[in-house]
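User: Predict the structure for this protein chain, please.
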Amino acid sequence: MPSPALALRRMRPWLPGGWMTGRSLYFLVAALWLGNALPALDATLVGTALPTIIGSLDGLAFYSWVFAANLLALTISIPIFGKLADLFGRKPIFFVGMGLFMLGSLLSSLVHDVGQLILCRVVVGVGTAAIGTAAGTIMGDAIPLERRAKIQWMFASAWLVSSIVGPVIASVITSYATWRLVFPVTIPLGLVASYLLATRYHEHVERKSHRIDYRGVALLGGGVLMLLIALSPTSRSTWINLASGGTLLALAVALLGLFVWNEIRASEPVLRPRLFLAPVVGIAALGSFASGIAQSGASSFIPIFVQGGQGGTAADVGFVLPWMTVGWPIGVGIGGRFLLRAGFRRTVIAGMILIATAQVGFLTLGRESSALHSAASMAVMGLGFGFSSVGFMISVQNSVGWSDRGVATASLQFFRSIGGSIGVAIMGTLVTMRMQPLLEFHAVAATAGSASALLDPNARRALAPEVLAALQLGMTDAVHQAFWVMAAAAVVGVVVALWFPRTLTFTTDHGPDVGGGTIPATHAEVAVPSVSPGERAR
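Assistant: Here is the predicted structure, written as structure tokens:
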């Protein structure tokens, strides 16, 4: 059996003009790079500034909902845009997503309460889903597989640049101006990316009658929304008691069950169940779900741990938070080359082990822990995400034909996002439920406002020393509940990775027309080992 690198080289289209080359390819890469940079920059900007924003808006009780709402919109929209990208082409979806993303960012700068911020983040989440799905699928259409594996670091470097630039910009803005100026920073980049893609990338889409699975969309959206509400802290509030929370959970299960039933019977489903019968797609989806919980947990709760529990500032958050996005592109670059030498299976296993190792660092964090401790844990987890994501995405993209590639690519993003959505909701509930008893134990007359004061440097200085100490102890202990959830998800991810197939069968169906060159719709298959020759020998 050939080595992974040799097998991948054989997977070229019959016509040499099929792949984009020359200046057109460079401009396309630039457009896709900016498309990847926008959500990355938004994540680091908002992640750094959010504790200050929540403190200013007095909204600690709804802190997790800012993330959960964004991820919910992302989760629901990803399979929809994946389907639309297969039906109508990738470019229109990219432009729709860019418009929504920029609109949501602009409106976020004008909010006056947490509810308005949550709604704006929903709009941003929908736009992010469209951009990510279209950009990832265009990359799969226009760039040869072997080169794609080697230049993954280039696209992932958008996260590296954003992780360096974003926190610095957010820290300066929140310290010397107003946090409202954080959100519009991404708009100029969106305009440049749209211009480059509009003028340099041309695709031909065969127009045909389309049928969108609106019933599936409604069932999926309703089921995930009911699930998040049932798992959120609001289900323990005065207006939703535990019994009604159980009712919402049962309703969510019923709606999601109907969604699966509908997808099996729909002529053009949002998610194609048959795709998940292939071991590589099903296992990659489960692995993405587990890694999404860990990723979203770190992005959501490390900032309030540093700024609230450890008494840090936005600058401290800006130092710690980026290390995951620094490690991610480095992991993608190393993982892409490791994949060609060692195979897909070893790549995803290595990634999941790194993610699990990072959780040990989080669980040992304390109130007096150094920033380097947090930063190192974030960096290791970023490396793990890089390895696992490159292994999962490339194996899945090349296990299906052109007509399924958009849905298959979107399915990984979908499961990673739904894992993050559910995980953040669970972690937010556990943190809230743990925080209040600890405050009562320390005899602090705490309210949501006094807890929110931990995140506002000016309000924090006005707290009495004993109140401040009790609030910080309560915050650090409560956030550790989230760390345990992340650790459990990481262990599940390792177990899932161990089930990754040892040999994969790839299709070479490259679609009708990409970048001005005609691609034959062949379906030749190539068996590619997902482990190294040495591992097979053992």
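The beta strands are 503-507, 513-514, 517-518, 525-529.
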